[in-house]
Specification:
about 290 residues; Phosphorylase Kinase, domain 1; D-amino Acid Aminotransferase, Chain A, domain 1; eight-stranded antiparallel beta sheet
Length: about 290
């Protein structure tokens, strides 16, 4: 795994997100996945070595496996031209040159199991994504059917779960229905693949953009940062299964005494190692 050396390439930086750096080349963007990790709406000062490469390579695996129209143009920094070609060692594996799209401003969330904010809503209201489901379900239960539960895209803080009808009002019924059907299809095919590798894909979120009338899958896809994976052998309804993501970081921060209103502390080496191992295991099992 390489370490990302630079965070700015000759003034091209357009935006720095919690994890990705975005460089604007006009009709194209260059996305560089850093090793930064966020929790509780803060970027943690300690990086997770190799995380950017793992997430990028897993997204590329899924784009290829699912055969989707996506925005990717190039993944080799040497072929991206100056200035990226001048730093291939630190950029290789974590960098994508993509077509610039008109981003559809909704997270396309798909849920197959009862977890996260869906579980919280179910406890409070008996619904998941504002959709009524049976009253007998437990935490981590498989839902009777796959649900599409969109959310607004937040620049900071948490995304807001919304009824599907609000998405329809914003972008129109034909596009909203297309995104719902496409998202459910992608989830179900990814779920079946994950299950064949001993993992449960509990839920995920997709992002889409448009170029003219073409709808493209963009950003990342089905990584542990955008999806909830559980070990199928230890999954049990009525429990909160550990997921293959940054849960060790969340758990350590929750017990560290940090007040969540001031800059977060550095992570101890053992928590970094545990987090790397979780991401690596998910990648290995899904792509082997």
């Amino acid at each position: 795994m390489t370490t990302l050396k630079s965070t700015n390439y000759k003034g091209l930086l357009r935006r720095q997100g919690k994890v990705r750096d975005v460089y604007d080349l006009g009709d194209r963007l260059v996305l560089i996945a850093s090793d930064r990790i966020s929790a509780f709406d803060w970027v943690i000062p300690t990086p997770i070595p190799g995380k950017g490469e793992l997430l990028t390579q897993l997204s590329l695996f899924w784009f290829h496996h699912l055969g989707q129209e996506d925005q990717i143009l190039e993944t080799d920094p040497v072929r991206m031209g100056t200035p990226f070609a001048e730093d291939p060692e630190s950029l290789r594996g974590r960098t994508m040159m993509v077509r610039k799209t008109n981003v559809i401003p909704f997270e396309c969330v798909v849920r197959g199991y009862l977890a996260g904010s869906g579980w919280q809503e179910y406890q409070e209201q008996g619904t998941v994504g504002f959709i009524t489901v049976p009253t007998s379900l437990k935490q981590a239960s498989e839902l009777p059917k796959t649900l599409f539960t969109p959310a607004t895209k937040a620049e900071s803080g948490h995304d807001e779960n919304i009824p599907f009808e609000r998405m329809v009002d914003a972008i129109g019924s034909p596009l909203a229905e297309t995104l719902r059907c496409r998202s459910i299809d992608l989830y179900q095919r990814a779920r079946d693949h994950a299950r064949s590798r001993g993992l449960i894909l509990a839920d995920t979120k997709f992002e889409f953009g448009k170029i003219g009338d073409e709808i493209l899958l963009i950003d990342e896809a089905l990584t542990p940062d955008s999806s909830r994976y559980w070990d199928a052998d230890t999954w049990k309804p009525g429990t909160n299964p550990p997921s293959f993501d940054k849960q060790p970081v969340r758990d350590w921060l929750a017990g560290s005494g940090w007040d969540r209103s001031s800059p977060p502390p550095e992570l101890p080496p053992e928590i970094v190692a545990q987090t790397v191992a979780r991401y690596q295991e998910a990648y290995d099992r899904l792509t082997r």
